[in-house]
Specification:
Elements (H helix, E strand, L loop, with lengths): L13 E10 L3 H12 L13 E3 L6 E7 L2 E12 L3 E6 L7 E12 L2 E12 L3 H25 L1
Antiparallel strand pairs: 1-7, 2-3, 3-4, 4-5, 5-6, 6-7
């Protein structure tokens, strides 16, 4: 019995998600809301607190703290430039051989803020995970927008 091994196509190993979010809030308030949403404001699909932490400095961790030394490492802060940039690299929520880069670029947009979000991944990410990530990032973006607009 012989088994044929086929290599994946390059396009199957790449994930690229980009979203533009327009927020009716000042740049500084939007950046604050971004940190809150990715940290203590992060909830799972059931609305449960994910107990996320963001150490908002270069090299800081983004992780899920389950207590008693347990949890999940999501990423490191690659760059932070308040209030215009927050960038991460790391495995995120994936248990797959993959490299991820996540960027939030903020800019003043009239009386509000424009956020350009980009998630780029290279590696073995199953298609069902890719589609779930698109929805999850969109939901996080909506949470940032709602938080920021409440702060005004």
């Amino acid at each position: 019995m012989s088994t044929a091994i086929t290599a994946p196509k390059v396009e199957d190993l790449i994930l690229s998600i980009t979203e533009e979010i327009h927020v009716n809030a000042r740049l500084e308030k939007t950046f604050e809301a971004l940190l809150e949403q990715l940290g203590p404001g992060m909830v799972d699909g059931k609305g449960e607190d994910m107990r996320m932490k963001v150490e908002a400095w270069p090299g800081g961790r983004w992780y899920r703290d389950l207590g008693q030394g347990n949890g999940h490492h999501w990423a490191q802060v690659q760059a932070i430039k308040r209030p215009t940039l927050l960038e991460f690299f790391g495995p995120l929520m994936l248990s797959h051989p993959v490299a991820n880069n996540v960027q939030y670029r903020l800019s003043a947009d009239g009386t509000g803020t424009k956020i350009v979000f980009h998630h780029y991944a290279v590696g073995a990410v199953p298609e069902e995970v890719k589609s779930g990530m698109r929805g999850g990032w969109h939901k996080i973006g909506e949470g940032i927008k709602q938080r920021a607009e409440k702060k005004q």
